[in-house]
């Protein structure tokens, strides 16, 4: 938009019975100056959300002098008179000032100001002021929203009282701004206290907890080792029990085998006893037969001798013959010697062979015993190695399970720490954004404060200037943005 020279009019609003009456001749959409009654600014500002940004305040909650329309449609008016009825809240007297000023508006969005709404900015380039005496009257009736016509009779308004009233209301508005500054300072103090309470994670001192954590870690490691040792002992006991069970079963089988051998030997003993009794009976029968044969032989010899004695002995002179008995005895002796020699030879050979066999049997028995001992030792060694292998496998499984549990536990702890870090980072980002937003709002409030202080200084200068002029001269009101 370009520069526009527009006549702006001052609207005054009176409160008669809670109803508003506006001047029928004014068509301004953006009011240059609005003089509210006492307590109006406090009620308006108390309805605004002070903790939020001024950009988010609803426009319908703001008074007319805090809103700005970029299009100003105001009719040119020179002098008007204003009449105020004597109802409650009415003004006693004064003058209405019309002003001609050049307004330069830009369509680009600018910061929020007391004369502009968010998204628009306004800049007043120059202002021409001239006083208006009585000439324009604004009637205020008791009807709701009713309009009254212009009255020819005008009432002179007390310029000094009007400016003093304006100054008081602006001072109350400045007090409200100061209260907002105080609330903003309290909010900043709360934010700073909250940030100090949280504090950065890197500055926290966890050294007092590391000793307890290390002690607990050592206890956990010791308990894990003790648990592994107990499991190892249990596995060793199980393996030893299995070994003893195997040995028991083996010994039980050997006992059953020995008992079976004993039963077989008992049967053989019974058979041998029966055979011995049979042989003894045979020996007795042979002895009886031998005695019987000897007896018969003696009887036969006796009979032969008796026969010989009964015969005639005829002696014949013949050549002497050898004695047959002697010859038989010699032959018997020779045969007996030969038999004895053969017996001794056979006995010596038998003894030699028996000694050789005995030595071989002894050597074989010793070899067998040694082999059995070696086999037993090898079996024991094998069982010990198997037990040790099982124990090592059990220890390996226990250590693997412990390692897996430790990895899972520390993975879960690490994931929890990562989640906490993400949460704290998000909180930190939110706090930073909130601090930036509060700083921006603080700057905006400072800007509003500076503008209001400039307004107050201007009004005070005007008051002092009016006081120096003396009575009878109209006030000059200048709006500064």
UniProtKB/TrEMBL annotation:
Belongs to the intermediate filament family. It comes from Scleropages formosus (Asian bonytongue). Keywords: Coiled coil, Intermediate filament, Keratin. GO terms for cellular component: intermediate filament. Residues 163-197, 255-296, 321-388, 414-469 form a coiled coil. Residues 159-470 form the IF rod domain. SUPFAM superfamilies: Intermediate filament protein, coiled coil region (SSF64593). This is Keratin 95. It comes from the Eukaryota. One of its GO terms (molecular function) is structural molecule activity.
């Amino acid at each position: 938009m370009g520069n526009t020279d527009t006549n702006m009019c001052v609207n005054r609003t009176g409160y008669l019975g809670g109803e508003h009456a506006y001047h029928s001749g004014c068509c301004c959409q953006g009011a240059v100056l609005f003089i509210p009654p006492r307590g109006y600014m406090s009620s308006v500002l108390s309805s605004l959300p002070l903790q939020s940004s001024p950009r988010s305040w609803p426009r319908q909650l703001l008074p007319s002098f805090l809103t700005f329309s970029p299009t100003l449609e105001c009719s040119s008016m020179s002098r008007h008179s204003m009449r105020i009825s004597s109802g409650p809240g009415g003004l006693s007297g004064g003058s209405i000032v019309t002003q001609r000023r050049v307004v330069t508006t830009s369509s680009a969005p600018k910061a929020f100001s007391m004369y502009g709404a968010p998204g628009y900015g306004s800049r007043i380039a120059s202002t021409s002021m001239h006083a208006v005496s009585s000439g324009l009257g604004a009637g205020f009736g008791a009807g709701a929203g009713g309009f009254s016509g212009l009255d020819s009779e005008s009432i002179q308004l007390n310029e000094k009282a009007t400016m003093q009233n304006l100054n008081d209301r602006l001072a109350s508005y400045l007090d409200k701004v100061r209260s907002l500054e105080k609330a903003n300072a309290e909010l900043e103090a709360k934010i700073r206290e909250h940030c100090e309470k949280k504090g950065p994670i890197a500055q926290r001192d966890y050294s007092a907890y590391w000793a307890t954590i290390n002690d607990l870690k050592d206890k956990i490691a010791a308990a894990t080792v003790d648990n592994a040792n107990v499991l190892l002992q249990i596995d060793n006991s199980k393996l030893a029990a299995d070994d003893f069970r195997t040995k028991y079963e083996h010994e039980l089988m050997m006992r059953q085998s020995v008992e079976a051998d004993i039963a077989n030997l008992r049967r053989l003993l019974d058979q041998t006893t029966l055979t011995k009794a049979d042989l003894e009976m045979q020996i007795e029968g042979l002895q009886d037969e031998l005695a019987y044969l000897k007896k018969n032989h003696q009887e036969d010899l006796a009979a032969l001798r008796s026969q010989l004695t009964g015969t005639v002995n005829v002696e014949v002179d013949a050549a002497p013959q050898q004695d047959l008995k002697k010859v038989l005895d010699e032959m018997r002796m020779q045969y007996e010697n030969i038999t004895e020699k053969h017996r001794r030879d056979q006995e010596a050979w038998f003894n030699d062979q028996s000694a050789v066999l005995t030595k071989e049997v002894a050597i074989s028995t010793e070899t067998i015993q040694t082999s059995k001992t070696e086999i037993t030792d090898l079996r024991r060694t094998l069982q010990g190695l198997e037990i040790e292998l099982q124990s090592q496998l059990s220890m390996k499984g226990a250590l693997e399970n412990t390692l897996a549990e430790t990895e899972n536990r520390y993975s879960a702890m690490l994931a929890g720490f990562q989640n906490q870090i993400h949460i704290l980072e998000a909180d930190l980002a939110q706090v930073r954004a909130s601090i930036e937003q509060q700083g921006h709002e603080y700057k905006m409030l400072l800007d509003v404060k500076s503008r209001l202080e400039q307004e107050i200084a201007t009004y005070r200068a005007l008051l002092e200037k009016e006081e120096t002029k003396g009575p009878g001269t109209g006030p000059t009101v200048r709006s500064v943005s």
